[in-house]
Amino acid sequence: MKNPYLILGLWEQRKNITDKLVQESYLDLVRKYPPDRNPQRFQQIKEAYEQLKTSKNRLQYFLFSTTLADRDDLIAALLPDKEYKRPDLQLIKRVLKK
Amino acid sequence: MTLKDRETNAKNALHYGHYKKAITHLKPLLEAKNIESDRKARWIEWAKTAHTSLAQQLFKSKKYQEVIRVCNSGHRLCELALDTPIYITSLINTNRFDEALEYYLQLSEKSAEGKTARSDLALIRSELAVRAIANDSKIIERLPEDDPVAAGFENACELLDAYCHSNDELVEDKLKLISFRSPYRDLKQIISAAIKLDKGSEADKEKSRETLANISPDSAFFSLAEAFQLTAMDVEEIASSYLSLNNNLQAFVCHAKGWQEEQQKLLNALANLPPEPGFSEIFRIADSCKKIQPEYAREIAQMALVHARVKHSNVITPKRYEQRFGKMDALESQHVEALYEILTYDEEPKDDYFFDPEEQFIDVEEAWEDYLSLLNDENDEKYGGMNPSVSLSNALVYRFFVKLRSRSDTDTRIRRTSIHYLEKSLEYDPLDKESHLDVIRYYLNEKKLKDARDSLNLALKYYPDDLQILLLAVEVAIAGNAFKKASNYAKKILEVDPINRQARNLLCKAHLAHARKQVPGGKWHLLEKELDEAEQWSKDQVNIQAAIVTLRAIMATAQKQKKQASEYLQQLSSLLKTDLNASLIIHLETGATNSEAINCNAKKLHQLAKLKWRPAKKQKKEVLFSFIEMSEACLNDYDEKVVHEAFTALKPALKFIDTADFSLQDYESVLAFWHRTKQTDLSEVYVEKAIKEHGNLPLLIYYRYIDKPFLPFASFSEVEDALHRAKEAGDSRTVTRLISVLEKSGPPMPLGGFNDKHFPDFDLDDDFNDLDDDLPLKDLDEDALKILLPELINLAASDKEIISLLQNVVRLPHAKIMEYKDIIGEKGLREMLIAFITKQTEPEDFIAEYESTKEETEKEDKKPKKKSFFSQLNLLFGGDDE
């Protein structure tokens, strides 16, 4: 993934984003993917944070980023991992039906 | 084939697991008549084994129809029992519930009587339970009430219903009612895990994933476990396995993730994409997602458009974009244009000989200037020019220019232009500390002290207590001889950070510099005070200690305290270990303090120190390296002229160092030092010695010519040969260095004019005759244009044309030209244009130079004019002043 908003899971909030929100999201993700266990993922998260941590950084990203989206970007942006929705009984029956 | 042969074949086939083959041989055997009962009983057993084993194989591959066929055939041939778990499960899986239930009830009875294992029933029961939940609850009606499938059915249904409606309390109750031996046992585990996946902690979730993964693929509830496992995956993981899922699982996952039907279609398209899709694939995806995420679709489509244009692709055109996503507004369109220019600039091959960063940069600059102008207009219209992000955008664009230029920063000219952008960026965003620091450092390095002070004052306005800025403030103050100010700034730093080494050093240097200023005026009390202060701030640096001791010796000599002076100088000698180093410091300090004015020169100090005025020849290698080390530590603290004089005085000693045990590496470091300190004479001596000892290595050829003002015609081929050899040896550093020698020297010049023996022989007259009088300008090469254009400008261009040329060639805005015209006049504009074409002098530099020259002229004019040589002669010989 290349888009820092998507990496930090802030795509939907990007219009009303604040430094605090960026920092919170960064810390949440670092807790989830600590550097000792996920060095690559951590690096990606850290770089994304650097790109968005202040309004100046965010404006800079908006103005000069020329990166083309990759597949993971597209998936994350177009298929957001929303809150889990429980299936209805009919779906469970369909899955169990052979 | 005889019966015996068939029997052997059947036995072998059975032995090797070829059950179909075994059955083929056993069929005629079992149909044969008049066979001994023992023998037939054996064949029946074999047939049962062959059918059962084949059925098990097929069951594992989920070929239920084939299982039923094999079992039935076995039943006909060898009375194979049909009330087996495999047969019944296969009947269930092919929806033949009536038969399945019949055999199941038979098996249950047998089990009650203890004739079959309980585990045989467990598999069938869980299959029946799944069917009952998924397909047909009528199955339950046909089962006895106390049958475990029927008994647990209602609870299982209520459990699922409670889970689907998020009634987790009821779910908990229902889960408790499912026993370990229940056919709904796996369902219990799956729903418990699903609840934790939804609401549990990270550890619970992890545990739940494990639980789901542990549900056996043979379990009747496996598909449900798989479905919940999928919902716990990341979207990227789902996408990568999505295409292999059946429709029901796909629907289950999409529902759980809350994806709409259009998103499900999109997931299909995304799952087919490579990890790094190209611009055309991205444009296609953008087109198909524009209803779901219109803004994102436009964004990625615009970027695809930019990349397509850079690659000269016609697949995505602005027109096509417009058809799919609507028209871009002017600002959006200009942003796309500006991004295109950045990418084009980045794509240019920088190592190409013909690559001109300046030329390429102009396009980037223009595109972004246009973008800013649109942005500023919009800001004025909509927000009355008060939108802070617009101001910041301006600043960021100018800083981006600096960054972009630094990528191809090959000469100081580019840096000069960069400073202009940095200053502009600070107008829009004065809080950017890094830019302040860069600007101050630039002016300080360029020795433009007034500009450095102005920039510093601006920076201090926003960052009055910043240590980095205060450190630079000390340096600026020292450079401008404002020692008190420097000391104040340094003390301010030390108040915040008492052990700041840099501040202590700078403070010490400020005191030392101030002390030196006191020598010519003989203000000994002040000098003593400053030296004490300097000593206090730097106790561990030998060169500073040496300078302090030498200054004290100068003071003592000037006050005719010879004994004390000698003591100080002895202290100096013991501090510096070698006479050459002591001599260096004496020369530097007497030069820096102008002590000649107080009748104390280097020679006198040498005598007092009992140092030889001309140090002994053929000194050891270590003496030279200690000298270089000492020089490196202190040369930056002295004026260039003082250093030059010190080196000149020490040249005889430096020339005759014993080089007998010099390695090539020794030569290289010594030559590098002479080059850095611009000691051409010394460099010449050492390079020739090195070549004599080590041959004409490419590196030595580089040092032979790097300090020459131009490359003699005869030496051109020598450098080219060295370059060729360095290339062959793969020594890229020396290659770059030798190229710089060739580039610096330009084309070979006939040193001895046309009489030079190396100058190519040709008839000049013929060449002149060949010249076409009407040679068009466009056919001339760049060098020729550089010579001819100034002439043409002087001869032909009108003032209006000069202004037009300044606009088009120098790319100066009209308003700026008019501003410059007010300062330098029309004639000045003409000169500015010529200077730009011939010397690449930037207009700002031209103006700055003009103004400084003007200031000097004015000062000179104000001074009482000295009488000229001729007027003095006239006075001597009694003539008129004039």
- The run of helices and strands of chain A is HHHHHH
Query: Roughly what percent helix of chain B?
Result: over 70%
Cα Rg of chain B: 47 Å
Number of domains of chain A: 1
Nearest-integer average pLDDT of chain B: 83
- According to DSSP, the number of beta strands of chain B is 0
Q: What general form of chain B does the structure show?
A: elongated
Main β-sheet of chain B: number of strands, strand sense, barrel status? Answer: none
DSSP strand tally of chain A: 0
Terminal-residue CA separation of chain B: 148 Å
Structural class of chain B: mainly alpha
CATH third-level topology of chain A = Helix Hairpins
Judged by helices, strands and strand pairing, the structural class of chain A is mainly alpha
Query: If interface size is counted as residues with C-beta under 8 Å from the partner's C-beta, which chains form the largest one?
Result: A-B, 39 and 64 residues
Q: Largest sheet of chain A, described in full?
A: none
Return residue spans of chain A where pLDDT drops below 50 for at least 5 consecutive residues.
none
Terminal CA distance of chain A: 37 Å
Walk me through what this model shows:
The complex is a heterodimer of chains A (98) and B (882). Chain A has 98 residues and is mostly helical. Chain A has one domain (4-96): Helix Hairpins. Helices cover 59% and strands 0% of the residues of chain A. Chain A contains 6 helices and no strands. In chain A, helix 2 runs antiparallel to helix 3 (39-52). The longest helix of chain A has 14 residues, at 19-32. The radius of gyration of chain A is 17 Å and the shape is elongated. The mean pLDDT of chain A is 91. Chain B has 882 residues and is an all-alpha fold. Helix content of chain B is 73%, strand content 0%. Among the domains of chain B are: 1-78, no CATH class; 677-754; 781-875, no CATH class. Chain B starts with a helix and ends in a 6-residue tail after the last helix. In chain B, helix 27 packs antiparallel against helix 28 (501-521) and helix 37 (680-694) packs antiparallel against helix 38. The radius of gyration of chain B is 47 Å and the shape is elongated. Chain B contains 46 helices and no strands. The chains are: A mainly alpha (98), B mainly alpha (882).
